Fold these 2 entries.
Entry 1:
Amino acid sequence: MTTQPEIIHLNNLDYLPYLDDNGLLSEELSRKIGVYAIFDQDKNLQFVGYSRDIYLSLKQHLVRQPKKCYWLKIQTIARPSRTILENIQQSWLQEYGITLSDNNLKEVEWIDPIDTKDLMTEEEKKDYQKADEMSQIKLLKKIARKFEAQLQENLKQRGSQVEIRFNPKLKERGLLDLK
């Protein structure tokens, strides 16, 4: 018989800084399984997710939403169980009056690769439309690199010292995702 972990109310958990005094994520979260709530600078709930490796998920979220990642609340579990993780997530969302579907709508901006094609200027869109396939790939890589530099600057301003490396193959499609 398996025992279900107790669901700790989100309000009963302490706020943890997203980045430590050195601008790094807590290495203690590496390979930890659990549910986490992300809060902005004013401690307003932004997103509730779950992961088999909280550290990697938090790193991904920091890249996608650096201005919304200031505080955390976390509940870890010993063994992976989607049902348990989803139950904790659902409980926390209900505590804040947020529906699961509202939270899931946010997942695109928190989890999916950044599509730099959506960030093209009108001029870049015109150049892309006129270009042959190889030129399109070069243009997408250029735009992805430009946005990557902006992201790195935003993270630096945020005080982050977290090492960020993007998958170079995805840049050819205009996507930025962590390697």
Note: The mean pLDDT is 93.
Entry 2:
Amino acid sequence: MEAESSNDFGGVPDEFERLWTPQRLVYIEHGTQPEVCPFCKGPELTDEEALIVHRGTHAFVLLNLYPYNSGHLLVCPYRHIATYDEATAEEVAEIGLLTQQAMQALRTTSGAHGFNLGMNQGAVAGAGIAAHLHQHVVPRWRNDANFLPIIAKTKALPRLLGDLREALAAVWPGSVL
């Protein structure tokens, strides 16, 4: 599908090209929620099975099964809560600490130059798993943008999830090996 130039529309032109993706409308309007919460199920599995990198007291860190970038981590409370304002002070503190530690571990294992951090609160805000709070930690590198996701519908992920989980767990700040 070819992108349209904004110069063909009324109003003030901008530099953005538009890539129309009507096939995503079904997902946007109806979404897809799993029958079992993967963030509740994950801690019941082994770290390798669930891609868990680190387990804390109130929260844990795991690799995103559908990453935006290699090393895309999720920080989740163990408790099944939907929004940040439902979290206890202890959960908030540990989510913050684990986010900092995730950044340190990603710098060590992959030399990340920066990060996107965020929480999508509710399905309307873009949360894929809206019923269970989770913070995204997405590593970024200079020149990491490329054409593959748009043109080829492909993400270039240079490390296998199992290998990356092992490397991150090995360098997690405060870990005793």
Note: Strands lie at 4-5, 17-18, 52-55, 59-63, 73-77, 114-118, 135-140.
